[in-house]
Amino acid sequence: MQVLTLVTTSKQRVLSGIQPTGDSMQLGNYLGAVRNWVDMQDEFDAYYCVVDLHAITLDPPEPEALRQRTRIVTAQLLAAGLNPDRCALFVQSHLAEHPQLSWVLECLTGFGEANRMTQFKDKSAKSGVDRQGVGLFTYPILQAADILLYQANYVPVGEDQRQHLELTRTLAQRFNTRYGQTFVVPDAYIPKAAAKILDLQEPSAKMSKSRADAGTIYLSDDPATITKKIKRAVTDADGEIRYDPEAKPGLSNLLTIHAAFTDSTPAKVADDFAGQGYGHLKAAVAEAVIAFAEPFAARTGELLADPAELDRILAHGAAKARAVASATCIDAYAKVGFLPPSGPPATTDRPEQGGQQSAGAVG
Ligand code: TRP
């Protein structure tokens, strides 16, 4: 019995977040991130957050659209294989602790430090810094709060989030140094099996919702649309099927997609299709994507047909999340010196944490 307890509490904790933008997750997001979240549910004590607060930092959607997108991304995460009994799946705005901790972290962040975030520069460049809401500027600090509230050991993120994770580590260390050991200093987690999927029309860029539709496959696309997009994918003129991401990025991207759905490797897929035409390969890639996307869309549709059940699942997730986030936030607020709202002094006891402190934590 004691051994069992030890085993369950020694799991490392992971936290990741996904924005409820758009009406469907895209293929690159699924293969690059979400699929790994599913795999991590058992090995880790996993927390997955639909970050709706972040979704209003740039071009805030209509309120009804935001509600619907939050339900859609939740349904898609469940359809992808997240199991609400094996992870905590919750919505960021359900926990007031996120903005609560974010405020304290904002006060610990230098203006210049925040101003160095390249994602802010990229996103604000479009319409000019002066026209952006301050929320876009403080976005990475809210993200730090998302992570630190859960005492996460690892944060599965892509390359584009590395700088935000660095800031998170810096803020955790700064708080710990100033107020005493409070936060686990998290590490980035680069999953072994993460596939980097590129835009079908512009294979120099990552596939992304913010790019043109023709280069992005949405998991909600119907089979005819998927086939059309893959058929039109940019390749090259030499006609040879070979895995060479440098010289043949478009073709290699198709091999990567095929491999991801057939439990193979791009090089092996290249061998299998060697000597055949690009058209033949493209048809096979479309078939492999559709074999996944069709049942996935059906399952998502079933889940969306019962919004009350989705909301119940999210309430369950929020309760799990709150058990950890609330304790961390009370502890952090007490350490800063905020007077506890009522009753005896706030306890600094925290619930069991996932594993030991990361290296770099300052006591
Ligand atoms: N910024 C992340 C992205 O764009 C989303 C995010 C918000 C996140 N909070 C997080 C990711 C916490 C990991 C952990 O993908």
Strands of the widest sheet, in order across it, are 1-2-3
Tally of alpha and pi helices: 13
Shape: globular
**Oligomeric state:** single chain
Please give the number of β-strands: 5
Q: For the report, how would you describe the main beta sheet?
A: 3 strands, parallel
Strand percentage:
5-15%
Cα end-to-end separation: 32 Å
Assign the structural class, choosing from mainly alpha, mainly beta, alpha/beta, alpha+beta, or little secondary structure.
mainly alpha
Describe the structure in your own words.
A three-stranded parallel sheet has the order 1-2-3. The chain has a two-stranded parallel ribbon with strand order 4-5. 40% of the residues are buried. The protein has 13 helices and five strands. Helix 3 crosses helix 12, helix 7 packs across helix 8 and helix 9 runs antiparallel to helix 12. It starts with a helix and ends in a 27-residue tail after the last helix. The protein is mainly alpha-helical and 363 residues long. The N terminus and C terminus are likely disordered.
List strands and helices in order, with pairings.
Layout: H1 2-9, E1 13-18, H2 27-43, E2 45-50, H3 63-80, E3 88-91, H4 97-108, H5 111-115, H6 118-125, H7 134-148, E4 154-156, H8 162-179, E5 187-189, H9 223-231, H10 249-262, H11 266-273, H12 278-304, H13 307-336
Parallel strand pairs: 1-2, 2-3, 4-5
Helix pairs in contact: 3-12, 4-7, 4-13, 7-8, 9-12, 10-11, 10-12
Tryptophan (TRP) binds near residues 143, 146 and 155.
